[in-house]
Amino acid sequence: MKAREGLLEPRAARHLAGVAALLGVTAVWGTTFPLVKDMVTRLPVTDLLAVRYLMSAALLLAIRPGALRGLAPRAWRAGVGLGLVYSAALVTQTYGLTTLPSFVSGFVTGSYVVMTPLLGLMWFRTRITTRAWTAVGLTVAGLAAFMLMAGGGGGPIPGAGLTLTLVSAALYAVHVVALGRWSRSEEAYALTLVQIGTLACVLTVAAAPGGIAVPGSPGDWAGLVYLATAAGALSFLAQTWAQSHVPSTTAAVVMSVEPLWATAFAVLLWGEAAGWSLLVGGGCLLVAMVLVAVPARAAPAPPLRPLTPVPGGETP
User: pTM for the complete prediction?
Assistant: First the structure.
C-alpha cells in the first residue's frame, strides 16, 4: 500500500474500514446460530423473523425519520429486490437450521463464498484475481475443516435441511453480488432501511395467517431485541456501507469467518463440541481473510509522453 503523508490513501483506508466492518458483522452473526436454534424451539420461524425485522425497521426509522426522503427510484428498486432475495435466503436457512447442528448449518451457508465470485463473473463479468481465488480455496478448506472436525461424522445429516441451507447459500451469494454492485456509501442508511422494511413486510405476511406469536419470557425477549438491533439493523447497515467500498468476493471471504465465530460461541455459551476445528478451520479462514483484507495496489499511471518535439530528435 502507498502512503500519503504517513496515512493510508483514502481508497485503501475505506477498503480496510469496510473489511473491519464486515468482520464485526460476522462476529455478531456468529452468535445468532445457537441463539436462533434455541428460540425456534419455542417460536415459529416466520413469527420470530417477522417480529425481529419489524423491530429492526422501527429502530432505523426512529433514528432517522427522514432517511427515505428524496431517495432515487433506482435505490428503491434495488432495496426492494435485495430485501426479497434476503428474506427468501433467511427463511430457508432458518428452516434448515431447525434440523441441522449449528456447525453444519454454518458450513453449508458458508459455501456462498464459492458461489459469489462465480456469480459475479457470470452476471457482471467481474474479474477475479489469483489472490482472491487463493483466498476462496483456503476458505473452502477452512469450512470443510469445520464440517469434518466439529462432529460432522457423528450421525446422518437430514437431506431436507441440507438442501434448504444450500438454497439459502445461493440466495446469499446473489445478495452479496447485487449489494456490491448497487450499494453507494451516501445511500447506505436509506438502502438498509428499504431492505429491512421489505423483509419485515414479506415475513409479516408469511406469519400473519396463523397469528404472530411473541416471546413468552424475559429471556426470549432479550434474545429478540439482540437479534433485531445488533444482529439486525446495525449489522445490515454496516454490511451495506462496507460493500460500497469492498469487492463482492472480498466481502464473501471476510463474511465466511462467521462459522468460526459461530463455533466459538457455540462452544463457550452452549456447550457444543469443537475440537481441532477451531484451530485448523479457523486458521485457514483467517489466512484467507488476510489475503483479501489487503487492498490491491492500483496500477501505476503510464509515463506522460511529451507533446512537443524533443530537441535533437523526433517526437517519441
Answer: 0.80
